[in-house]
Amino acid sequence: MSHSKGMKAYLIMMAVRLLEMRRILRPNGSIYLHCDPTASHYIKGLMDAIFGPANFRNEIVWHYYNKYAAGKRVFGRNYDQIMFYGFGKYPFTPQREKRDKPTRQLLRENVDGVLKNKRDADGNLMYRTSEDRKVDAVWRIPCLQPASQGVYRVPDAEAAPLAGTHHPRQHESRRHDSRPLLRLRHGLRGG
Known about the structure:
This protein is α+β, with helices and mostly antiparallel strands. The strands form four sheets. It has a five-stranded mixed β-sheet, with helices on one face. The chain has a two-stranded antiparallel ribbon with strand order 4-7. The chain has helices spanning 5-24, 40-51, 156-163, and strands spanning 30-35, 56-63, 79-86, 96-106, 108-111, 114-117, 127-134, 138-140, 153-154, 171-172, 181-185.
């Protein structure tokens, strides 16, 4: 997509949809929007204008560690972004993932509002063994390859009723799609 008429049309289309999402989002809802790096900085500004910069929670990087990174004069473009905005006391459950190998971590304690390293009665630092960790804002998820199980082509005649519209090109189930993915969590008014 060139960054002229095509990008402007895309952003206008997204603005209309995001305004509607904001209208129907509950006061304690959250929204996740998946986009690729060609539009993410524009989308972030648009979402700040519609949802408010104070409601921005995270920009999640979806890193495809197994995607072929073409190009000799650029870093690999093997990631997408997910913009996350939340309102009020939106539901959120921190996720944990298993570490490759257990690690030793310093124990910490709150002393008069200051986080300090915990020590035993003899003054030695105290440690714990951690086998998992809190998931951060970089998600390492493999890219589905065309030969992967579960990837299949859906002929237009079958896909059109599912999508509710007809698209002239053949539909394909795949991991990467330039269309944004919108997710509302606990968020629709009246629902």
